[in-house]
Amino acid sequence: MRLRACAALLLFLSACATSAPSPAERASRNPRFANLQRAATLPWTDGGRCVVREASQPWPLLVEKCYRTLDHDRLEFHDTTGRCTVASADAATVGLGFCVLAAPEIAVGAVIVLGVVVVGVAIQEALDAYELRHASPEEAGTSRGAKVSSREAGAHRKPRPEPDPAGQSRQPPVPPVPVSQTGRASCEPVPVPHAGEDDPHDECADNFPPNRYPGMDVLVGGVRFDALQVGIRRLWEIKTHQFETYSDFVRDREIEKEIKQLDRERKAAAMCGYGFVLGVSTQAHKDALQRVDRSLDIVVTGCKR
């Protein structure tokens, strides 16, 4: 109720503070598209699905509905106008961040995003669909033609040699990752869709840490991790094997493979200033790994397959 009261107050203030746009201005500005563009500059933990669902609402109401799906760890709010401090007791109660973000026109410097924003998948798809619908036939044809040409060019390109699949059985190819000026893979976390189609594994990765980007893996330092934990710089690898059901021979081979993978992931996490934790489903799996490497930080999740 407090969020709704604050949003209603901000709507009222915006109506009083700004002059009504002309019919031509209203026709030329689509509120849904404007909201999507605005939301694209912010980090969302759900890929922007809530934003797309509520994009036809006025901006303050959209913020009310979706405020909890923001990545708050990457946002700083500054009441540069003083409006949120004095205008509403409700705003102070629900938090300065909500009041500042829900303001109809955000002042420069009021919302600061830490790091590079990767536009939410759902928001990007909605923006692309809008632009395609509103393009002229010639522009739409050009856009489609460019995509077809790009696919055809890719089909005729000489394939590159496949990397050694050892230890990579669950990880399909991933899109290029940002690189720093030194040429090294960026430490900025980049969400990418979960690898593979292992629903029990993905559910564990999303809910147990819990995952800052539900439904997504994350690339850090050029290495894919199953989850980035909410509220802390900690990366996770999740294993949901029912390890105790394997034969002794299979157990030994599995441990050898996992130790190599975990060493690579732990080094990438440490290089970028992140902690690293391994989640396994059973105590037997944890014991087998720690017999080889006692330094591993391992948690028994109890996740089922």
Automatic annotation (TrEMBL):
Region entry Disordered, spans: 137-208
Regions of compositional bias (Basic and acidic residues) in chain numbering: 149-163, 195-204
Source organism: Corallococcus macrosporus
Keyword annotations of the record: Signal
InterPro entries according to UniProt: DUF6310
Top-level taxonomic group: Bacteria
DUF6310 domain: residues covered: 181-303
Name recorded for this polypeptide: DUF6310 domain-containing protein
Matching PROSITE patterns: PROKAR_LIPOPROTEIN
Endpoints of the signal sequence: 1-20
